[in-house]
Amino acid sequence: MEHRIALATGGNEGFRYAKLYFFAAILLLIAELIGSVSFNVGPGKVVLLPMIWALLLGAAWGLAKDRLPSFLSVDTRMQFSAAAILQPALLLFVAKLGLLVGSSLPRLAESGWALMLQEFGHFVGTILIGLPLALLLGIKREAIGATFSVGREPSLAIIGEKYGMDSPEGRGVLAEYLTGTVFGAVFIAILAGFVTSLGIFDPLALAMGSGVGSGSMMAAAAGAIAAQQSPEVAKEVMTFAAASNLITTTIGTYFTLFISLPLAVWAYRVLEPVIGRTRANAPREEAKVAKVAQADERLGAVGTAFAWVVSGALALMADWIARGSQPLESLPGMAIVIGAVVVGVLLNRATGRKIPAVCWVSLVAMALTSPICPWAAQVDTLTGKINFLALITPMLTFAGLSIAKDIPAFRRLGWRIVLVSFAANAGTFLGATLIAQFFRH
Q1: Positive or negative torsion for Cα 196, 155, 406, 2
Q2: Does residue 290 have a pLDDT over 50?
Q3: pLDDT over threshold 70, residue 324
Q4: What is the pLDDT of residues 71-85, one digit of tens each?
Q5: Which residue(s) pair with 4 in the sheet?
Q6: Would you tell me the crossing angle of helices 76-103 and 231-255 to the nearest 10 degrees?
Q7: Among 51, 234, 294, 306, which is least packed by CB within 10 angstroms?
Q8: Are the beta carbons of 41 and 191 closer than 8 angstroms?
């Protein structure tokens, strides 16, 4: 069933969006007031940041829709509305990262091969860890779709075109997609925070490992790493994570198509006769699951602009609660962030959407603080008043409010392939981190 979302200036549509933004503000306030909570697990430490609380609370609110009075319920339609708002909120964070990258281009250049070659770890790591586990659990060709990448939108398109979404490979990539959507940010944040606490890897190597090609997962992982660093190192962590994510987003599609997918197919043919097993009486995955109910984003120009403004306001509120910043002093910087997003989106449309808006926004923001811009120092000073972590919390708040709609399809895929998806996500992070660590020394 298609859900078409259109933001109206009045009536039920406007009321639904106003209600959704109000709920998001409440969740963000609660999450920031809870603050960071850490606990030890063996030799390492798990850190739950406000952004994770926001995601978990939003998901819980959506799942409780049938148990709450109608005026407090986040029904399915509102969950699709939250999914539509998520992309504009994500672009604000992308712009902030681009601003950090632009001012650090000389520092990035010094990283040399580490930043370039870690890309191999992102995609090969999913196969090395995820595929053997899938075969040991009795999963067949679904393992190819679930482990050749982290399974975001480009991966769905690649598998859909080559095999069809009703194929085993299609169901596998769908499982990876849904796992990342529902649990990806929480899982990668906990994993990244735990690995960071061990003190084995350089923080910048960990930052490069965070650029998995998903904005929300990158934000969650890099945020967990940055939270355990000094302010100066934390800024570098976000910068390198953003640069890595930009590389993954731009050339990652070609890498998955021409390298990691053929590698996954070859590895399956070699390993399946050796370690694969047949699961007796295993429930057959439903092909209907392949048809994911997704929001057809129709916020429109006014609705998108409103989403940018509200997300920016929520970020300023988060920064004020968490770090005591002055929202009025941060307003000019937020205006620059939103301006970079607007220009990037316009360029995306002017070029026929052939280059993703995420890439355009990153490039525009990078240019504003790079050495080629005569006002780079002023822009860096103004936008530097906004902490990057503050922009993650609103984004994950909307992600949390949108999660519950995916749970029914997610359940039908079974726990085995979900476990494989977690292993693939761990593989992409650890694989890239290991390569970056090796070439940094």
Answers
A1: positive
A2: no
A3: yes
A4: 899 988 899 899 888
A5: 296
A6: 110
A7: 294
A8: no
Q: What is the pLDDT of residue 293?
A: 42
Cα 356–chain centre separation: 15
Q: What is the pLDDT of residues 43-96, one digit of tens each?
A: 666 777 888 899 889 989 999 998 999 889 998 889 989 988 887 888 898 888
Determine the 3-state secondary structure of 160 from DSSP: helix
Tokens of 188: 């990668």
6: left (phi over 0), alpha (psi -120 to 50) or beta: beta
Cβ-count burial 174-210 (b if 16+ within 10 Å, e if not) = bbbbbbbbbbbbbbbbbbbbbbbbeeebebbbbbbbb
- The whole-number pLDDT of residue 108 equals 65
Q: How many CA atoms lie within 13 A of 33 on its CB side?
A: 7
CA angle 45, 50, 54 (to 5 degrees): 125
Are the CB atoms for 290 and 166 separated by under 8 Å? yes
Beta carbons of 141 and 168 less than 8 angstroms apart? yes
Bigger pLDDT: 348 or 38? Answer: 348
Helix axes 231-255, 153-162, angle to 10 degrees: 10
48 - beta bridge partners?
37
Residue 318 to residue 301: CA distance in whole angstroms: 26
Beta bridge partners, 45, equal: 40
Torsional sign, CA 422, 426, 429, 431: negative
Per-residue pLDDT, 250:
60
Residues 52, 27: Cα–Cα separation, whole Å: 11
Alpha-carbon span 106 to 212, nearest angstrom: 23
Strand, coil or helix: what is 198? coil
The fraction of the chain above a pLDDT of 90, given in percent, is: 35
CA distances from 154 to 171, 174, 399 (A): 15, 12, 19
Q: How far is CA 174 from CA 135, 270, 291, 356, in A?
A: 18, 24, 9, 21
